[in-house]
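Changelog note: in this version the structure field was regenerated for every chain. One regenerated record is shown below for reference.
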Amino acid sequence: MPTRAERQGRNESLFREVNERIAELNQTFHVEGRSEFLCECSREECKQPVSISIDEYEGVRRESTRFFVIPGHEDESVERVVERNERYVVVEKFGEAADEADDLDPRS
């Protein structure tokens, strides 16, 4: 049976998959500026948008254990904040959640 951290990692990875498709569409249609992506927090009920540019998105994606969430959606039990601004927070998974995120990274 998966642990809480593993379940959170899977949930966030699902949102990351959706955001990967949004990023692909933005690149295909040469969208400039910011776009609306989904918050990649572990809250199953969260569907809140995050306004982020493709360059910012790609910066987060360089690390398979990093996700962007809206401020206040951080979970200090499985992640640490590595960047913060007025629109979003970049978190980095650790422990089992990091392992799960790395295993489920669509770019690896």
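Spot check on this record: The chain has three helices and five strands. Residues 4-28 form the longest helix (25 residues).
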